[in-house]
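Structure (tokenized):
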């Protein structure tokens, strides 16, 4: 069993994001290339973004802190603490409207069929 304080990790990653030229920082909470389930804590300084990118497959975003906006070609969704957003399967982006921390959960296929 492994226990991680998302509150403490969010605080650390947000400090790192504020100091980074990109305005963002991330840390893998669980998973990696050998796992189907991957969870990544992402911290974004206000005004920073993850530019449009292809969908990783089934994914959700849980807002821990701040306010974010997820957009695709057709729509946009704002999230604040406690909001759970299903990531669109289309190309999409993420913008931080305030200093923000989110937990990205992705399920990917692993093994020789990939």
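Design, position by position:
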């Amino acid at each position: 069993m492994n226990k991680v304080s998302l509150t403490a990790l969010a605080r650390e990653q947000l400090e790192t994001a504020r100091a980074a030229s990109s305005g963002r920082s991330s840390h893998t909470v669980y998973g990696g290339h050998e796992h189907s389930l991957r969870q990544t804590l992402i911290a974004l300084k206000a005004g920073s973004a993850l530019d449009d990118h292809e969908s990783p497959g089934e994914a959700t975003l849980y807002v821990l802190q701040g306010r974010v906006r997820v957009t695709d070609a057709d729509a946009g969704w704002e999230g604040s603490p406690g909001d759970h957003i299903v990531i669109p399967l289309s190309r999409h982006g993420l913008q931080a409207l305030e200093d923000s921390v989110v937990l990205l959960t992705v399920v990917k296929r692993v093994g020789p069929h990939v």
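Reviewer-requested clarification: The longest helix spans residues 6-19. The chain has a mean pLDDT of 92.
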